[in-house]
Structures are given as structure tokens and as C-alpha cells.
Batch of 2 targets.
Target 1
Amino acid sequence: MLGLTPASPAKPNGASDGIIKDGTDASFMADVIEASKVQPVIVDFWATWCGPCKTLTPAIEKAVLAAKGAVKLVKIDVDKNPAYAGQLRVQSIPAVYAFVNGQPVDGFMGAVPDSQLKAFIEKLVGPAGPTDIDELLADGAAFLAEADLAGAGQAFAQALEIDPENVKALAGLARCYLHSGDLERAAELIAMVPAGAKDASLDSVKAALALASAPKSETSGLEAQITANPDDHEARFELAKALAGQGNLAAAADHLLIIIERDRAWNDEAARKQLLIVFEAAGPMSDVAKQGRRRLSSILFS
């Protein structure tokens, strides 16, 4: 996973913080390529001397804000940041590109009327879609199950437009950022959950974030130790934690179950306790949890 430069998450009330930002060549991978894997990102290449830019930029900002979090805008001054403009062969400005899933998918050159801007964004994010929050949450969950972070992020962002404190939407969007490797944004979204709120999806993403935030261990050395001594429970336990931190929860569960099968009481049942954290991080209805619990029951009651 490429390292990201996190920014504040978009505020559900449609404020420009996080939705519109100034980008640079240095932050392009984080602000555009990686961010577009969660939701569509529009890039506006401009310069201070460009007359049409002075017309287009405020118009496109207005259109992006009207989309209420469904799309983000990154503005890049080509004089100060020429690298990606050159790679995209920008020959005149203003030049606007839309990115989805890390790839440019549409664009145009020059100032255009508001109606064309609106159509450009609607084409990018699709029709207005469902306004029922339960339907949006179901769509978000379905997109997440298919590893479509852009679709899931858009659905959860729209749900937050309806209910800015919706726990499932905040947890869902946090999971999108967690999957994209942006742990800071995921943590910021979890911090926005109202005090005392409870939900299985919130508990799950909190557990996943805790695993991902734990100090990382090199797996190759641990794997070599286990190959040399399959009963090295300490090495296997550390390997399971490292794999869980990488998001490979199925492999982590496998190693923890091996420890339990060979010595269920090892280290005050540390493997079983860690396994329950892995199940929670994966989600109670996940294959990792369901299959793992069946294997655990078989081990404990055999």
C-alpha cells in the first residue's frame, strides 16, 4: 500500500473542508489516486495568470459543493506543480480531469457553463440515487462486500448527508478509508460517532483499526521460525498479529486456531482471546468469523 498524506474527512454538512483542497505534485498520489479509490475526485489544473481559470474555478467549486460529498475537488497550480499536468499532457488551462479507482475517466478543457459542469459531475457520480438512508446503508455494505470502495464511500457519504451522526454510515465510511490504508481518516470518522452510540459495525471497524494500528512485525522471519519449529507458538502468535495488522484476517485466524488446537491454554489462552478480536474486526457475519467459529467449536468440544 502506498503511503498517504491524510487530510480531514469531509464534513457531512457539505462544508468545503476535505471536499475541496489545494493539491501539489507531492500530494497527488494521496489526494487524487488513492482518494479516488474511495470516491470520485475531480482535478482542476489552473494558474494565476489564466483568465478563464478565474471563471471556472469558483463555478466548479460551487458544483462540487452542490454534490454534497459525492465527489471531491483538488485544485493544482500548474506553474508550481508541473509534473502530473505534464504526465496527463495538459496543453492548455483550465484543464479538468475526473478520477475513479485511481484512473482518469473523463475531462474537458476551458471554461464551460454551469449546466455542463452539473452534467459532468452527474455523469461521474451517477444519478441522485436513493434518498432512503436504509437503502443507502445497504448499498454501501454491498459495495464493501464487493471491495468497491468508491461505490461504498459514495453511498455512506450520501447517508451522512441525511443523518450526519448515523453510526452505521460513519463506521462504513471509516472502513472504506481503513481498506484504502488511510488509518488517520478512519480514526477521525470514528471519533465523530456520538458518545455512547453502539453498533456492531462500529465495534467491528474499531477492532480492525486497532489491529491495523498495532506495531508491524516482519512476517518472513516469523514464517521461517515456524517452518523450523511448527510448535513455536510465540512466533505463530506474532505472525497472526502481523497478518491481522495487514488486513489478512483469514490467515491470522488460521494460525491462531492452530495454536488453540495444539495447546488451547497456551499463554493464558492468548490465542483464543486474539482470535475473538480477529472475528470482531472481520464482522460477525463474515466468512472469517463464521468459518472460524465452527472450527473453534470443533476444537474445543472434540
Target 2
Amino acid sequence: MPEDVSIVGFMSDWVSEISTPRITFVKQNLRDLSSKAFQLLQGQIKGDDQTYHFVTSARLEIRESTRKEKSK
């Protein structure tokens, strides 16, 4: 890695810190995600059976498991 294959994880920043090479990962805003999940749970408890779609912020943390693009 990363010459032949790149590895990207999802929500695994702790794994990236203990692996060699460190793994690139997508990190979501857990506070926002958990708040929206709680709101959905409250609605379901109150009898709301509607389907909702939410978008949360995320960022890509590029580490050593992903090849860097060469400068031209």
C-alpha cells in the first residue's frame, strides 16, 4: 500500500492511529449525527412513522494508506 491499492475506512479514526500505514478515513460529525438520531427516535416513540433523510457534514482525513497525486 498505497502503490497498488488504497484503503479508506469509514468512522475509524482510532484504527488509523494504530495501523501501519495509517488508514485514510471519512469522519462524520458525531454530535450532529447523534442529535438527529435522537430526534428520529423521539418521533418514533410519539408514533411518527414518516421516513426522513438527513445530510451531515463529513471530512476526508487522508493518511498513508492513500497514494498522493503526483505534481505535474
